[in-house]
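B., you asked whether I could sanity-check this one before it goes into the benchmark set. Here's the sequence:
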Amino acid sequence: MAARTLGEALAAFSPDDLTTLLRHREDLVRPLPADFTELVQRALTPASVARALDRLDAWQRTVALALAASADGADAAGVHALLGVGTPAEVAAAVQDLRLRALLWGPDEELHLVRTVREAFGPHPAGLAPVSNRPLPAAELDRALEQVGDEERVILERLLWQRPVGALRQADRRVTLAEARNPVERLLALGLLRPADPETVLLPREVALLLRGGRLVAEPPPVHPPELGPRSRSASLVRGAGAGAAWALVHDVEQLVEDLDRRTVSLLRDGGVSARDVTAMGRRAELRPEQSAMLLEWASAAGLVAADGPRLLPTARFDRWTTTPGAQRWLQLVRAWRSNPRWPVAAGRAGAHPLGEEAELRGATEIRAGILAVLAEQPVGRQVDPAGLVDVVAWHHPAWAERLPLAELVTDLLSEAEQAGLTAMGAVSPLARVAVGADLDPELAALFPDPVGHLVVQADLTAVAPGPLLPEVARVARLLATQESRGGGGVYRFTESSLRRAFDAGWSLAEIEQWLAEHSSTGLPQPLRYLLSDVARRHGSIRVTPVLAVVRCDDDAQATSLLGRPEAGALGLHRLAPGLLAAAAEPDEVVRVLQQLGLAPVATDASGATLTAPAPPRAREPGHRGEEPLEPVDPALAAELLLAREQDRSARARAVDSAVDVLTRAASDGTRVVVDWVTDEGESTTRRARVLTITAGAVRLAGSPGDRGVTVPLARVVGARVDAGG
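And here's what the prediction gave me:
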């Protein structure tokens, strides 16, 4: 028996068909419906239908448009004739796709577009008005068109493809060709326009189709997506270049976040980072400001940085992230970016601020996923032409092309893809497939360089890393020296300030020399030994002790010099004894100011023991910015659960139907029954009784002849059976 409604059509779905529906429209199972009735109700809502239509490709959407422009109950052959492109089999395949998305139902001979879908296309789908109540015969229509002048033709062209209605006062009055005073009235007199109401005229469908040459749309889309282009590069070269770019991304993010440990970055009122701070961070990491802004967004999406009051700080997750292998670190970044509800490139534009409001984009996650899916479908090495990619994405998502700056969004994503190694040398990398969910196989992971644990220390006070350093080695190397170049390896320069930073952190001269001896493949050059000795000798010659603070100088001349500096007043410095000064500021503040003066003080406790620098502060690991991302839906499991619920509901319905039959017979022959039902409080109860009356919605039972009885809704009846005890 043919389905008469969408609900009956869905009830006939196989488990595979239902899985397909839920894969395309996962909003229908958030949360899982109680039964098919609820599923159908959700599928018919305007919001769900709009979302489903947005996910149609250009060919599927055009077939749906043709159905919306056709009368209810149209057949696939008529739709094919109206389209004028594609083959009957291709039209039938698109119809089946729409059927599996619950946007239409019925066999190919009698197709019923869901009412909400028809409403979504508006009153004039494809710019076509209804057919006239009394259309002109074909011969008369041809003769009328022969009498159309240039002015009338301009009006017909204006109404032909977009909105087939126009305004005209007293449009419904009868007018002859001789009485017509303007081109619109001439078209009314010729029967080429018809009055829709007293103030509106419209171009009838039969006239429009004749002028269109029978075409539904001016430029029908291709049945299959356009090709991205035939040009390719060597797959092996692109694979290696992509892995190199991926590693550079990991390195750049690490450099950028580590910089927050050494310098204070305050947040703006909207939570963003100022352009000055972004530029300074980028300069220290050898990144352009727009790159720094984008990578801060990546780091935030991965939870590596977060706000701590007014400051931006690394999180404990960043410390864990730096200890994982390079391939896994890249994977964590890309997965977080893939599900990021923000648009990182926007943070690097003029006037924008990373982590601020400018990078918010509605639907960013779905747009990113759609463009990435097109990239991932391409063979490795296929060159990516941005304009060609826009055309392919527009075919897959025509709704985006209508309302979004698609060319700009595609260009943005390509810049991020190149930065992350998803494309390399302008071609698709195998990492693009990993970005959309494929596993990072061992062969790809092996392309990431293995970290090394040694440096080549040179006489010019530099150290060269022959490859990416082990996280703990890199951390100490950046403490002892300043990194001067980006890349998997890098060049580190030892300076007086960098070594003083290590002494401030609690390292002794012997510990530094021992570490360098263990991690230098070339030994310790003499110039570096001299520099270390000189910095160590001067480091701590001034000691700060809390009183609020006491400054003790080994040389009284140095104390006298300090008292003469303008900063002495701000610190409240005054002499206690030769070489001994008191300060009205906290010890940390005194140390900071003396360092700014170019001195090398150390802080001590009350016993005189040197205090090392505290561990860098960490922000609390953030949740997700914006809305909490939804858990992915397993469509097969959801279909299985939904079918089980529907079977349970059907079984209960059959039990109620059977109980109604028993109660109906008992009412007619007066036999006693045993009835099970659920009370208003949700408790199960059973009663032996006689059926007094039964209606469409309730049954009235009496336990004994004098009993006034009780009324039970049939919906609460669980079961009924003849009382064997009589």
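One thing to flag: The chain has six domains: 6-122, 138-212, 235-438, 456-531, 542-599, 656-722. Otherwise nothing jumped out at me.
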